[in-house]
Amino acid sequence: MSIVNILRKWFSTIPDSTEPMATGDQILYDSFTHLKNFVEYYIAQIYTGTSDISYKSKEKGIQGIDWLYAQKNKEPHYQNALKEIKILYNWWDDLRPQRTDVWKDVDNTTYSKFKEEWLHTTEEQNNEYKEYMDKCRYAEKLQTLYNNEDTKMLLRLIQVRNYL
């Protein structure tokens, strides 16, 4: 049994590089790719007045959202949707990529040091094992927080989908 399979018995969020992307993760990535394309293509083209459908600009897309928002004759729900679209876009494109890979060491340094003898001991009996498990618990908690944030942001995107 591989180290990843042993650890997955205790920590379900450990990724397995041999498995394809989970359907839920694919839905997240596909949905936010559509949002990104909407801002960088559609909004940027409207803002610049170009008829070139291949024109793409992150900067002009963000400026376009601000420009649309500044037009006060829009309905309040449309204005709110524009704010939300900008928040979601910035989260996906700027903030989310800054996350640390919590399980990055699963196949290298820290996590590959798992010892078979630890399967027959307790944390109270072995400090090295306790430190190892503490690192795994921390990574599991952080990955769970990331997963919850992803779900929250996907739900927010669903709420503004009719404005895209």
Task: Return the average pLDDT rounded to an integer.
Answer: 87
How much helix is in the residues? Answer: 55-70%
User: Mind summarizing the main beta sheet?
Assistant: none
Oligomer: single chain
How many domains? The number is 1
| Structural class estimated from helices and strands | mainly alpha
Order of helices and strands: HHHHH
Low-confidence stretches: none
Categorize the overall geometry: elongated
Span of the ends, CA to CA: 47 Å
Total strand segments: 0
Number of helices in the DSSP assignment: 5
Proportion of strand residues: under 5%
- Rounded to an integer in angstroms, the radius of gyration calculated over CA atoms is 22 Å
Topology:
Blueprint: H1 3-8, H2 23-48, H3 58-70, H4 76-95, H5 127-159
Helix pairs in contact: 2-3, 2-4, 2-5, 3-4
